[in-house]
Amino acid sequence: MYYLGNKGERLTDAFFEAWDYGPVEPSVYQKVRMFGSDPIQDIFYRARNFKVDDPRRTALTEVCDFLIPLRPSALIDITHWEKGAWAKNYVPGVKGIRISDTDIAAEYECRSAANSHHADHFSAI
Counting C-beta atoms within 10 Å of the first and last residue's C-beta, which end of the chain has fewer, N or C? Predict the structure, then answer.
């Protein structure tokens, strides 16, 4: 959402779906589901290694730095926002409902407008 909202393009070719516990990228879920509620180990050995000056790397680093210290309840509040892309697409018990880029961009714009008085550029997340 952050990258799409700032750059106007997708960060990845993958799509998110509106599942019961929030937005999910199904192929990532398949790779990490074996961990259950335990901490996820680094299993992304073949993940793309962006160059230091790549704006995608910068965006990922900024967002991770912002999100990692948050408590799980704060992450849930972010992903389950009642005006957000997940909430617009979620149907209880149904998997496979793709969250559109339009809905993701609209959430970013809505959050940005609501928080425009904050200096922190992550207030939109």
Answer: C
